[in-house]
Amino acid sequence: MGPRSRRRPNTRGRLRAPLLACAGLFIAGAARGQESLEIAVKAAYLYKFAPFVGWPAAALGGPADPFAICVVGADPFGAVLDRAVAGQQVAGRPIVVRRFAQAARAQPCQIAYLGVARGQSGKEALRVLRGAPVLTVTDASAARGMIDLVISEGRVRFRIDDAAAADSGLTISSKLLSLALSVTPRKAQTGQP
Amino acid sequence: MSGPARLPDRLRALLIFASAAILIGASLLVALYAEGRYRTQAAQAAGVQARVLADTVTAAVSFGDRAALREYVDALRDDVEVDAVGVFDERGELMAGFTRSVLAPRLKNTISMKQHPGRIVVLAPVVENGVRLGTVYLRNRTDPPLRRITRYVAPGLLVLMASLMLAVMTFDARALRRANRDLLAQMARRESAEAALRQSQKMEAIGRLTGGIAHDFNNMLAIVLGSLDLLLRRSADGDPRTVRLAQQAMEGANRAAALTQRLLAFSRLAPLKPAAVDIAKAVNDMTELLRRTLGETIAVETVSAGGLWRAHIDLSQLETAIANLAINARDSMPGGGKLTLETSNTYLDRAYADGEEEVAPGQYVMVAVTDTGCGIAPEILGQVFEPFFTTKPAGVGTGLGLSQVHGFIKQSGGHVRIYSEIGHGTTVKLYLPRSTAEAERPSIAAARSGAPARREVTVLVVEDEAGVREFAAEALMELGYDVLAADGPHVGMELLGAHPEISVLLTDVVMPQVNGRVLAQQALRLRPSLRVLFMTGYTRNAIVHNGVLDADTHLVSKPFTVAQLEAELDAVLAAT
């Protein structure tokens, strides 16, 4: 597209948010700078998915219950995630970050980031959570969750398995689907509320 | 003629202007309303556009996908009304956008919509599931005032044209009505003119008829009168009873002759015979007559200036004119009054003559006829000389009285003025041209009785009527002339050729083949010394030019007496 090529690059605007997000890690050095930026973006993504995903009413618990983002297994975010969600709300609920060693069915999570867990492969974790109203997020893993984060052209992108989301009774906004690198479409409309 | 609901012109014009004003006012209101609607719609359209964009870009804003944002934003470039677009994230940083003007999209304030002249700025929040993700800025161009005005030019022109047409139609209708009024007035005038023409044609026809009858009757009277005259001459010393009977017959025949003269006057076939007339004497003679005819309630007074000139006019016509004026005066004084006849010498100077129609400056004898009657209204004063104009009830006046006065005066080269004051009276002044020939016509010699002397003069009589011819021959012989008679112009010319002793030609004017004037011309060519005397009762053609006899023409009017014939022949022979 011609008009896009004519646009002035707004370098400052593009870099400012990640820089702020990882201000604390800046001293870690140039070698780790790229990595920490990536982590910060991914941490932001975790709560940014929430407005575009619909959970069954029962899955959100009582009106006083917070919205929980769970990190299962190894936690690559650390404090970055806690700072990112601070002050953020989903459907009028404050966001909390919960950390678990392994995935379990009964865990009170709306979004589960499946890191590398000891004693539980990604596949197993996904199996444990299958059918549960939890948005599973994996990070460039062999076993892909409903949303799989990938690095493409130097940017953090994602692939979406809408079929799996449908199986768990979740709906993913078409607006989010349109940003995905790839979408595994849901099979039928029967699962839709 | 016009509708009963016709409005006065001023009210109509007012109504027309009011409706034109209402029309223009209404169209202005419609234009203002349309303008307001346009602005509302433009604002609504901008708001919808911004909301649609905000709704679409939620995910892209949320995840900072600038490529996707640019695609969304660039889609709006196709809309020429969009002046600038900006998508800002929740911290107010511009993520994507464009501008067509120097004004970059900026989150200056929190007002969601603002209208500026020529543009509308809309801010729409980017919200997904209640989470505020950013802001969309949209600036739309509205039509510039000039373009908006041009949008109303066509309907405005239509309204203007409609108003103009309305006005033109009104003025057209008014002009049409005025033209119609003029036409109706013209038609009325033409109708009355046609009526007058018909009347005049009727009078003309009656005149011709009367003239014809009078002519034939005159010829017969000529025979009767002539014969009676001869009889009286020859039996002057005969039986007194026979003489008295003949005299009575003569009297009756004379009265009949006077009647035919009046008929001829009425038919206007009598030619003017202008002569040097003593006006003072004529007016005095008329006064006696008027005193008797106007009645006891009207006093007749005469004021004559001394040393009055003679006037060159026809006396009998003057008498008729004075009589006509006296009759009008009497009719204007039904309760009685005074009629004054005044005569004086007058000079009309060039200044006066130039101000009047057909008046030559010079010396005139003035005759003023003044009454103390009701007067004539100023507005009809200009019409009174017109033929058939009359203020008298139908059947009383002919409308020819003043017309005769005017016609006669103009024919005589004179001038007439009328002065009138309502309630006080009327004065008609006749200006009669002064006669240059002061000598009176030779008075007719008294009839001689007894045997005439032999005259040694031969007269050729040409007359198609046997009775008249015979009487004329008899009378001439009685007077001592030698007579040759012919019943037509051809025989007359033959006799003239055969008899060189003929020195006088007495000829009728109206004859079947050749009229008397032509005969006289032929005869004079043959014999220049010949003297000619015409006899006629009917002088419509041949010897009359403009109603006046040629100066050297001698005429004896039928019926004539032996004495009249003798006098005319004496005049012919005496002329050099």
CATH superfamily of chain A: Response regulator
> What share of the residues of chain B does DSSP label as strand, in percent?
15-25%
Q: How is the main sheet of chain A built?
A: 8 strands, mixed
The largest inter-chain interface, given as chain pair and residues per side, is: A-B, 23 and 26 residues
Indicate the proportion of strand residues of chain A: 15-25%
What do you see in this structure?
The complex is a heterodimer of chains A (193) and B (576). Chain A has 193 residues and is α/β, with parallel strands linked by helices. Chain A has one domain: Rossmann fold, CATH 3.40.50.2300. In chain A, 32% of the residues lie in helices and 23% in strands. Chain A has an 8-stranded mixed β-sheet, with helices on both faces. In chain A, strands 1-9 form a two-stranded antiparallel ribbon. In chain A, helix 3 (30-48) packs across helix 4. The longest helix of chain A is centred in the first third of the chain and has 19 residues, at 30-48. Chain A is globular and about 40 Å long. Residues 1-31 of chain A have low confidence and may be disordered. Chain B has a 5-stranded antiparallel β-sheet. In chain B, strands 7-9-10-12-11 form a 5-stranded mixed β-sheet. A 5-stranded parallel β-sheet of chain B has the order 14-13-15-16-19, with helices on both faces. In chain B, helix 7 packs parallel to helix 8 (315-332) and helix 8 (315-332) runs antiparallel to helix 10 (401-411). Chain B has 3 domains: 9-151, PAS domain (Beta-Lactamase, 2-Layer Sandwich), CATH 3.30.450.20; 273-433, 2-Layer Sandwich (Heat Shock Protein 90), CATH 3.30.565; 458-574, Rossmann fold, CATH 3.40.50. The model of chain B is unreliable at 439-451 (pLDDT under 50). The longest helix of chain B has 82 residues, at 153-234. With 576 residues, chain B is α/β, with parallel strands linked by helices. The chains are: A alpha/beta (193), B alpha/beta (576). The A-B interface holds A 1, 3-4, 7, 10, 13-14, 16-17, 45, 48, 50-52, 89-92, 173, 175-176, 178-179 and B 56, 58-60, 62-68, 70-71, 74, 77, 89, 91, 93-95, 98, 128-131, 133.
